[in-house]
Design a protein that fits this description.
There is one protein chain. With 203 residues, the protein is mainly alpha-helical. The chain is 41% helix and 10% strand. It has a two-stranded parallel ribbon. β2 and β3 form a beta hairpin. α1 crosses α7 and α2 runs parallel beside α5. The longest helix is centred in the middle third of the chain and has 21 residues. The radius of gyration is 17 Å and the shape is globular. The two termini are 33 Å apart. 25% of the residues are buried.
């Protein structure tokens, strides 16, 4: 994330920052515990995989409030038996210090298999699946985009929050990596989310 508690000058840490919007939102909601399952470089496919794992372990319970921040559609991953191999377009375009995966797999994927329309379809399918899975389990949920991606498919009925991270990021200083939203931006994102969900979570 590039925030001060997880930035070593060259790459982000392996654990979610306590300065990011989830912990800021925890304070606004006045709750004692927050479970942040995010990880650096996750694709939407890996987000689905993570939610499925936590549901199967019983970590996500019926009285929880789940907020899913969907990421950039062009990220991808291979879910192997013993690890998740993360693939990114920038591994093909340029060298990147955070690339801790097999770059050759990224090169093959993005040069020969990747399609812009296909990733939008996959993203909508992932979102639709998780929305209806959590709805079936009667778990209160909210969904948001990390960018300005719209819901392109009429068949997808996933409701999204209006909070715009790109808009808020543009109004405040960036994080230490000069890419991600800075601390003040995360504070404002948390305020915006809380304003949208306050009525629903207090019902």
């Amino acid at each position: 994330t590039g925030l001060s508690d997880c930035w070593d000058g060259s790459m982000s840490g392996k654990h979610p920052s306590k300065l990011a919007w989830p912990n800021r939102l925890q304070n606004l909601m006045n709750i004692t515990m927050i479970k942040n399952f995010s990880g650096g470089g996750q694709s939407n496919k890996e987000i689905v995989y993570t939610i499925q794992k936590e549901l199967s372990k019983g970590t996500i319970k019926q009285d929880d409030v789940v907020i899913v921040q969907w990421t950039y559609p062009d990220r991808h991953c291979i879910i192997a038996k013993d690890r998740v191999i993360q693939l990114y377009p920038y591994q093909v375009e340029r060298r990147h210090k955070e690339a801790d995966v097999d770059k050759r797999m990224s090169k093959v994927h993005y040069r020969h298999l990747h399609d812009n329309y296909d990733v939008l379809y996959q993203t909508a399918t992932h979102q639709d699946y998780i929305y209806h899975k959590l709805k079936q389990l009667n778990i209160k949920q909210f969904h948001m985009f990390v960018d300005s991606t719209a819901n392109y498919f009429e068949w997808s009925d996933v409701p999204f929050l209006k909070t715009s991270i790109p808009h808020i990021r543009a109004l405040h200083p960036k994080a230490l990596d000069n890419q991600h939203p800075g601390e003040q931006a995360h504070i404002e994102v948390a305020k915006s989310i809380y304003k949208e969900i306050e009525m629903s979570i207090n019902v």
